[in-house]
Amino acid sequence: MDPKIVYPIPKNQSFFYRTLRNVMRIVFIVAAVSCVIVNLCVKGKPWSIIVVWSLWMTWNLVFSLRLVEFSIFSHAVRVSLYSVVLLWLIDYFLAPGWAQTVIPIVVFAFLLVLFILFYAMYDTRDRHLVSIMVLGIVSVAIAPYSLHEWPITNWIAFAFQVASLVLFVVLLIINWKDIVRKLRILFRR
Amino acid sequence: MNRKEFELHVQKLKGGRSKEDASKIAAFFAALDRKGSLPSSQYNMLREQFLEAFEYYLDHGLDVSETIGRLSAERLGDFFYDKSDAFYTLDNAAIVYPLGMKFGTMPMFRLSATLKEDVIPCLLQIALDFTVRRFPIFSTVVKTGFFWHYLESAHYVPAVEEESEIPCKPISILMRSTRSFRVIYFKKRISIEFFHVLTDGSGGLVFLKTLLREYFRLLGIDSPVQEDILDITEAPKEEEMVNEFERAQGEDDLNTFFDKPSLQMDGRLTAVNPSGVLHYEMDTAKLKEISHKYGGTITAYLLAVMFEATVRCVKASKGIFNIQVPVNMRKFNGSKTLRNYSMYFSASMDVSEIPDRISLVKEMDRQLKEKGSFEIMNHMMMTTGRLIRSVSWVPVFLKAPVVQVAYGYLGNGIIGNTLSNLGVVKMPEELRGHIDHFDFVLIPGRPNRATCSLISYEGKTRFTVISATSDKRIEQEMYNRLTEDGLKVNLEGSIGYGS
């Protein structure tokens, strides 16, 4: 067989990311399993939970990017959600007493930056609506945790919770029609 | 090109022409500058595309009036200028594709038309700009819902590209502006590569033929619309966007859905998929004559040849080998849908029991008639619908990992190869002399080592083997058998893409 070549010679395929991904998968699995075993053997605080979550977070945010519908907004929301869980784990298992204050600050910071970008990027804001709504919902959902000592008030947490709530309500009021339309599409079965 | 540069170019076009022509040119480009929801970068792109085509025509001796007539911006309609909020749920065949997608893989296919002359890229670009409005369901991006993925309108200006990659390289559908298909050209060939989520081969062929008709109109060769070539000045019709699976009626039968795992051909899977494409061009009449001599159709004959060749390419001396045969459901009810509307069945043989060719062709003919009957396909369609309904309440993030695992076992694991026959392509009389042939390329899903496809046009049948391994025995075995039967086979293809 001697076919006539009718296709162009393709550019060199780069397998760097694919190879890196495969290598890192093995590294991460070995690291996670080793940490759990060592932690179980030496006993003490369950620090391996934080290691495993951090590895999982890095894997998902760096090496296993979404294949459908990726944007800086959706990625920032994912980063914020993973970070909130990581902060809570550190507080709960290793060094308690500060996450109630820090988590509302972190969520507010993400929400504020995305809020500004959302209105700055007028042409494309429609496609980021769901991402920013998710973060808004998270900011409200963490309130029972950050304010759980009520009526003894953690004023810093309280202030940031209120600030997040204000941003969220503003978003809801301004984009109400679009939100309802989006929700109908998103939850269609 | 920014606005200032663009205006300079228009001034140049007007320079040295009569007052009447100059004002016509100004009016033409002003008509492109309508207010709308298009971002400024998209306006610039559209202007540049039309400017290039305009210059091409004037350089090739067309007068201003004729140029404006061919490029009339009216043919764009309001498509790029109006913001569309439309969305489309995925059809029952497409629903699994985004769920089952893994990094670096994407179920894709390519339809190509090779012309008698080199492609003129700037005219192909305008043809695409004009054509895409008639296919709003293709002008969409895949989005993730809570329960299922869906398609959302994205009326961005498309761009044709020169072919420089392997066929059916996965399309990155991450971003808003990336559609699930691409139009590429290479010398005399125009190709469209589709992510299967949009349509099947028949729907894709309607798009290609409509694009070709528009391309030739821009070249000054007019032709009438016909059944599967759409009039791009018409509004899209409801019947073209319908999910036919939802309208199916009848009993389901779970047995039609599952099959035994198939043997797979030898050969290490290459990192690059496909690892090569090989077209076997044969005379249709001769192929038909030989198929009839063996007592079957062309599809039955080629299936028999594929089974015979496969026996030489599997290690096991015993076991079932399945070849998937897609069935175009439109042939049963004349549906005009442009979305996926194909089911499939497996032609099966135990590799230890391959009979002589006459018996094998007859056996394939029997299986094609029995397993590909409307009754069985309808059962399968109903079962698919039932399975989808039963998991419709499960969120996408839970469904996706399950589907990714199951897809390998229930999808590609139960087949060893595929033969997809798109049939005979008919073009209007006026265009026949300008198109040499059509090709159909279907990417093998892992762990399959190859897929085969078939398409005929103007007395030429192009049988294509798309391989995912550097082991080229299946191609050689097929070639030996076809030539042994007295068929004159012209081979065209690609270099080996990977080892």
Order of helices and strands of chain B: HHHHEHEHEEEEEHEHHEHEHHHEHEEEHE
Coarse morphology of chain B: globular
Distance between the termini of chain A: 52 Å
Largest interface, Cβ cutoff 8 Å: A-B, 32 and 49 residues
Total number of domains of chain A = 2
Please report which band the strand proportion of chain A falls in: under 5%, 5-15%, 15-25%, 25-35%, 35-45% or over 45%: under 5%
**What's the story with the biggest beta sheet of chain B?**
7 strands, mixed
Question: How would you classify the helix and strand content of chain A by structural class?
Answer: mainly alpha
Shape designation of chain A: flat
**Radius of gyration of chain B (Å):** 24 Å
Question: So how many helices of chain B?
Answer: 15
CA gyration radius of chain A, whole angstroms: 22 Å
SSE blueprint and pairings:
The complex is a heterodimer of chains A (189) and B (499).
Chain A lengths: L3 E2 L10 H27 L4 H17 L8 H22 L5 H22 L4 H17 L1 H4 L8 H20 L1 H11 L3
Chain B lengths: L2 H12 L4 H14 L7 H20 L4 H8 L15 E3 L6 H5 L7 E8 L5 H11 L8 E5 L4 E5 L7 E2 L18 E6 L2 E7 L5 H18 L57 E8 H10 L4 H14 L8 E9 L1 H4 L8 E9 L6 H15 L2 H17 L5 H16 L5 E9 L3 H4 L2 E8 L7 E8 L2 E8 L5 H12 L5 E4 L6
Parallel strand pairs in B: 5-6, 9-11, 11-13
Antiparallel strand pairs in B: 1-4, 2-7, 2-12, 3-4, 6-7, 8-14, 8-15, 9-10, 13-14
Helix pairs in contact in B: 1-3, 3-4, 3-6, 6-7, 8-9, 9-11, 9-15
Structural commentary:
- The complex is a heterodimer of chains A (189) and B (499).
- Chain A has 189 residues and is an all-alpha fold.
- In chain A, 74% of the residues lie in helices and 1% in strands.
- The longest helix of chain A has 27 residues, at 16-42.
- The termini of chain A are far apart.
- The mean pLDDT of chain A is 89.
- In chain B, 36% of the residues lie in helices and 20% in strands.
- In chain B, helix 3 (40-59) crosses helix 4 and helix 8 (284-293) packs across helix 9.
- Chain B is of the alpha+beta class and 499 residues long.
- Chain B is globular, with a radius of gyration of 24 Å.
- Chain B has a 7-stranded mixed beta sheet with strand order 10-9-11-13-14-8-15.
- Chain A binds chain B through residues 1-11, 13, 15, 18, 21, 64-71, 123-124, 127, 181, 185-189, and chain B through 39, 85, 87, 89, 98, 101-104, 141-150, 152, 163-167, 173-176, 186, 189, 271-272, 277-279, 392-393, 475-476, 479, 490-495, 497-498.
- Strand 1 (4-5) of chain A pairs parallel with strand 15 of chain B.
